[in-house]
């Protein structure tokens, strides 16, 4: 039976620590900063950058503890908000400290397809979205991520890839050529996470699975609206679109649907569905007994 969500008495609950969620944001900081620093600062990693990364990783645990207390009152997860906050702080601090150098101005002429909707590279971008969650553009990395997710849950694999596909092709509508970022999976990873979040934290019924796909679609519009803002300061949007959209849709699902559809002790979607079916079966048996006892007493 699914457990009811309990508020922690103080600090971070042991269950969150044991599940590795405190380390998760720190791992993201430790992988994304080295991956994106050379791209946005146009120079190789240096010793001070590693110092920023270590301090940010530690600070992400503190931020998780604070945000967890706030969001727990509404039974909502913090997702990757701690990672986003500390990574933005690290990038801005390093830029203010003068670590950035101007990129080389190489005049090159490229011809980009006007309508790459069914381009093979765009389909490749749906796969690369999995690796871009970690800031890595690699087919091998993306394949390993998908295999790892499949080992945990085939259903979650199907929905995360569907979310990445929806986000990637939606990006063709809300962005403009060149579509190199779409083909690199940059526009798909937030959809990948958004569809997975609803599938993971809600019992996977047809209604919630549809909501997961819609969440990936809406996430891409948030990504589109935030991209010019962060581009003006030469920073990536990271997973902010996923966090904002998923918090909205998870709250929506909890407010308009049965409370029992919200998973309080997440493990994997297939198990959530089995436990939910067992709960419904037990409730049905209880109701049958409750209606049978008065009839027997009247005999």
Automatic annotation (TrEMBL):
GO MF term list: urea transmembrane transporter activity
Residue stretches spanning the membrane: 21-41, 47-68, 186-203, 210-231, 237-261
Cellular component aspect of the GO annotation: plasma membrane
Domain of life of the source: Eukaryota
Pfam families referenced in this protein's UniProt entry, alphabetically: UT
Annotated InterPro entries: Ammonium/urea_transptr (IPR029020), Urea_transporter (IPR004937)
Cell compartments where the protein resides: Cell membrane
Keywords: Cell membrane, Membrane, Transmembrane, Transmembrane helix
Catalytic activity: urea(in) = urea(out)
Protein name, entry field: Urea transporter
Organism from which the protein derives: Cherax quadricarinatus (Australian red claw crayfish)
Lineage per the UniProt record: Eukaryota, Metazoa, Ecdysozoa, Arthropoda, Crustacea
């Amino acid at each position: 039976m699914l457990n009811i969500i309990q508020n922690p008495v103080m600090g971070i609950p042991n269950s969150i620590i044991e599940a590795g969620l405190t380390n998760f944001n720190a791992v993201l900081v430790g992988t994304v900063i080295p991956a994106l620093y050379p791209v946005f600062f146009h120079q190789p990693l240096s010793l001070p950058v590693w110092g920023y990364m270590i301090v940010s990783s530690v600070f992400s645990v503190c931020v998780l503890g604070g945000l967890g207390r706030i969001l727990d009152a509404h039974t909502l997860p913090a997702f990757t908000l701690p990672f986003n906050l500390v990574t933005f702080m690290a990038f801005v601090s390093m830029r203010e400290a003068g670590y950035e150098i101007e990129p080389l101005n190489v005049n090159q002429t490229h011809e980009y397809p006007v309508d790459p909707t069914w381009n093979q590279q765009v389909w490749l971008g749906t796969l690369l979205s999995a690796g871009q969650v970690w800031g890595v553009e690699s087919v091998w990395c993306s394949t390993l991520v998908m295999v790892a997710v499949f080992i945990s849950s085939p259903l979650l694999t199907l929905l995360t890839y569907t979310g990445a596909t929806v986000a990637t092709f939606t990006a063709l509508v809300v962005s403009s050529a060149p579509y190199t970022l779409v083909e690199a999976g940059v526009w798909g990873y937030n959809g990948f996470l958004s569809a997975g979040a609803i599938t993971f934290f809600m019992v996977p019924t047809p209604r919630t699975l549809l909501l997961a796909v819609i969440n990936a679609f809406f996430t891409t519009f948030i990504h589109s609206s935030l991209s010019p803002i962060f581009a003006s300061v030469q920073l990536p949007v990271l997973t902010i679109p996923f966090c904002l959209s998923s918090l909205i849709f998870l709250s929506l699902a909890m407010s308009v649907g049965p409370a029992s559809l919200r998973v309080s002790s997440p493990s994997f979607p297939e198990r959530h569905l089995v436990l939910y079916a067992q709960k419904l079966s037990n409730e049905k048996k209880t109701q049958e007994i409750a209606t049978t006892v008065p009839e027997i007493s009247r005999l």
